[in-house]
Design brief:
- The chain is of the alpha/beta class.
- The protein folds into 3 domains: 171 residues, Thiamin diphosphate (ThDP)-binding fold, Pyr/PP domains (Rossmann fold); 151 residues, TPP-binding domain (Rossmann fold, 3-Layer(aba) Sandwich), CATH 3.40.50; 189 residues, Rossmann fold.
- The strands form 4 sheets. The protein has a 6-stranded parallel beta sheet, sandwiched between helices.
- Strand 16, helix 16 and strand 17 form a beta-alpha-beta unit.
- It is globular, with a radius of gyration of 25 Å.
Length: 551
């Protein structure tokens, strides 16, 4: 076995191994050579080389999203680790475990004009769960810091930073370990005792209980709990595409339902108790509603974090949603006098009829394309959706319950969607599809500079020649300033990128072409493929605005 000569690097690697951190994403560099040599020489680790650090971080985050365990990111000194920051922030708010291991210069080389050197200590201070600023000499204190960092990422589900200063020579190796690092016993967080009776009493008295579900992994709730919530006449469950929870009695398309509400409707919908769980919510309309028509109580269920999104939070429930609802329903009785669910279902049914009527007559547009894509999407696909308009269109059309849906909603940025999807595809080994817009795709085009893209990976690229979402936001005017600085108008396509990175490529520009090419696209599993769908810039926003007017 080959090991780096530098003992600090040996300790980092061995402590990672002891904590079962297997997936290592390495961006090439010189200062991190001791780590690269050690990780890549040990068959225990699965190492991936991704040159662009921003892409590497999102790639690692996509893997961690799927394996639900930390991946490690390894980079050289200087600006390299700054390029990790967008993914660090996303992982922080999405509760995805990442371990950043950055190589650094010795402290004596900082701020003296030495090359490739910045102030790396605590560089992620605002968006990190733990920073381990290691000493230049290997020591028990370093071992302690490394252990705590790794265990924090695992237990608290977020990013941590290990900054390791290495002095030259960097490439020397040895054949035997010269350290025996301290391995701390793993300590998980004990569950906090909860007095469920107090919640069950309030639950029984409330006639209107609104359960709003944000971003979630599949199978967060058992079938029994899903049924209990679905058949409680005093409960309305609102889900989004990214909630990954389904039932015919749940309200799946929030914006479709509430956009045309009158003041009387909003008052009728105002809950006595709001119960939330999961990550960030996409719908701006539901957030605006709940901030104006506040519930008497807002309970947020999470083991780690409790955001006061609606300025109404009264109870931080430190529990899993499954355990909480299971306990509640053992202590409560059905509120048969409430018509809350029946009222909401009646409105949802009317909106569905209006939706179907409108969709049957709309012209070729982004909305039409989303409808066609979701109707034909193969079952049991893992679907990754980019931010901006793509994730909002996805909220309006039905998606088969067998499809798992993911999106980087922690910071809701357009950066890194493609890289995340590729990392998720590598880790999950499921049929993987990314639906993205043109600006997000071009912004993260270095994601395709990746030797690990699965053969069955598919990208659906909606190209409307600019940031179409700005056309549906307040303030849109057809001016040179808007077209240049907001929409970012362009005439670029993915054709030459696909050729350069050895991906198959299909281009369509009409509904007829799309219908013709979709079967071939879905059945293509021998090479990664991009389906680029050009849609009319001047039509998309009008179709969407008219959609809501018709609801």
């Amino acid at each position: 076995m080959t090991y780096p000569e530098i003992e600090l690097a040996q300790s980092i690697i061995q402590i990672c191994k002891a904590n079962n951190i297997k997936h290592i994403i390495i961006s090439p560099g010189s200062r991190n050579a001791p780590l690269t040599i050690g990780f890549a020489s040990d068959p225990f680790f699965m190492c991936y080389s991704v040159a662009d650090e921003r892409c590497a971080a999102f790639f690692g985050m996509g893997m961690a999203q799927q394996i639900k365990q930390p991946t490690a990111l390894v980079c050289t000194s200087g600006s390299a680790l700054l390029n990790y920051y967008p993914a660090i922030a996303e992982a922080f708010y999405s509760e995805i475990p990442l371990i950043v291991i950055s190589a650094d210069r010795p402290s004596s080389k900082i701020d003296i004009g030495d090359g490739q050197t910045i102030r790396q200590k605590d560089v992620y201070a605002n968006h990190i769960l733990y920073s381990a600023n290691l000493l230049e000499q290997n020591s028990q204190e370093n071992d302690h810091l490394i252990n705590i960092a790794i265990q924090t990422a695992i237990v608290k589900k977020g990013p941590v930073h290990i900054n390791a200063p290495f002095e030259e020579p960097l490439y020397n190796t040895v054949t035997e370990l010269t350290v025996n690092p301290t391995i701390l016993p793993f300590e998980s967080l004990p569950p906090a005792p909860i007095e469920y009776t107090s919640y069950s009493d309030k639950w029984n008295k409330a006639n209107k209980k609104l359960v709003l579900v944000g971003v979630n992994y599949p199978d967060v709730l058992s079938k029994a709990t899903i049924e209990a919530l679905a058949n409680d006449p005093s409960v309305v469950v609102l889900t989004e595409t990214t909630s990954n929870i389904h039932h015919k009695n749940y309200i799946q398309h929030i914006d479709r339902i509430i956009t045309t509400f009158s003041q009387e409707d909003f008052k009728a919908f105002q809950p006595d108790i709001l119960i939330t769980f999961g990550g960030m919510v996409v719908s701006k309309r539901i957030k605006a509603f709940l901030r104006k028509y506040k519930p008497e109580s807002h309970w947020h269920i999470d083991l780690l974090r409790h955001y006061d999104t609606f300025d109404a939070l009264t109870d931080k429930i430190i529990d899993t949603p499954e355990r909480f609802f299971h306990s509640i329903y053992q202590l409560t009785k059905g509120n048969e006098n409430s018509n809350y669910l029946l009222w909401a279902k009646d409105i949802a049914h009317k909106r569905l009829e209006a939706h179907q009527k409108y969709m049957s007559q709309i012209p070729y547009s982004d909305l039409k394309v989303f409808d066609l894509l979701m109707q034909s999407l193969p079952k049991s696909t893992q679907l990754q959706i980019s931010n901006s308009s793509a994730i909002r269109y996805a909220q309006l059309v039905p998606i088969d319950p067998s499809v798992e849906v993911y999106c980087n909603r922690g910071t809701s940025g357009i950066d890194g969607s493609t890289s995340t999807a590729i990392g998720a595809g590598v880790a999950s080994e499921k049929p993987n599809v990314l639906i993205t817009g043109d600006i997000g795709f071009l912004y993260d085009s270095n994601a395709l500079w990746n030797a690990y893209i699965p053969k069955n990976f598919k990208i659906v690229l909606l190209n409307n020649q600019g940031g179409g979402i700005f056309r549906i936001l307040p303030g849109h005017k057809e001016t040179p300033v808007f077209n240049t600085y907001f929409e970012t108008s362009h005439n670029l396509t993915a054709e030459h990128l696909a050729k350069m990175f050895n991906l198959d490529y299909i281009a369509v520009k009409s509904e007829q072409e799309l219908q013709r090419e979709l079967p071939t696209f879905w059945n293509s599993n021998n090479r990664p493929v991009i389906l680029e769908i050009s849609t009319p810039t001047q039509v998309n926003d009008q179709v969407l605005k008219e959609y809501f007017r018709n609801m």
